[in-house]
């Protein structure tokens, strides 16, 4: 088993006033040569956005973008649909940028901060037709069991959102002292696990809130929650850039 630890306080941090951004991987002006990607996972940003503020219209291409709101209301608009679309905690949003999209993201609340994860995954295909989708996932469906959020178009899971990469994004909520054994898709995959909240042991390592660990070259690994914990898994092919 190969592991790489990323403690919460080792992430890049940018304070833009209206935006407090934590970068697990090199992003914008923050560059760390040893933190450019984990396999096909290119970006994991942990953002807090002030009320009524956000990202104006900007372009993306050839990237699979997943957004997971944790608190507040995200509003999204793009050149595929000119109407603002709300995305709230419990929902997940995916966008295949493909040949190119223009979109805007704002905090849809006038008085509450917005907290979210934004994830970029390198696609297995270039120049696909842009697309957008979102879906609700119930919290009770991840109590002590893996809840799959996103999979490949080639995956037979009919309840997940789809992207152009052989990846799997999932969540689990563990009770105090509960254990779980995570099984990887294949020997060519690795999984980047972030502790959304709580504290867990992975093999002989302890991870606290917003700590992350990349695990590869293994078929499975065990997790034990100390207090109640919420976990995010991003499993991707271990490609090289």
Helix content: under 10%
Uncertain residue segments: none
SS class: mainly beta
Write down the secondary-structure element order.
EEEEEEEEEEEEEEEEEEEEEE
Strand order within the widest sheet? Answer: 1-20-17-22-15-13-14
- The CATH architecture designation is Sandwich
Mean of all residue-level pLDDT scores: 96
Report the total helices: 0
Bin the strand percentage.
over 45%
When the domains are counted, the total is 1
Principal-axes geometry comes out as: globular
CATH superfamily: Jelly Rolls
- Note the main sheet: 7 strands, mixed
CATH topology: Jelly Rolls
N- to C-terminal distance: 21 Å
Q: List how many beta strands DSSP finds.
A: 22
**What is the CATH first-level class name?**
Mainly Beta
Organism: Winogradskyella pulchriflava
Family: Belongs to the pirin family.
Domain Pirin N-terminal: 11-121
Domain Quercetin 2,3-dioxygenase C-terminal cupin: 150-236
Helix and strand arrangement:
Elements: E1 2-6, E2 12-15, E3 19-23, E4 41-49, E5 54-60, E6 64-71, E7 74-78, E8 81-87, E9 91-96, E10 101-107, E11 114-121, E12 131-136, E13 147-152, E14 161-163, E15 168-174, E16 179-183, E17 189-197, E18 199-202, E19 205-208, E20 212-216, E21 220-225, E22 229-237
Parallel strand pairs: 13-14
Antiparallel strand pairs: 1-20, 2-3, 3-4, 4-11, 5-10, 6-9, 6-11, 7-8, 7-10, 9-12, 13-15, 15-22, 16-21, 17-20, 17-22, 18-19, 18-21
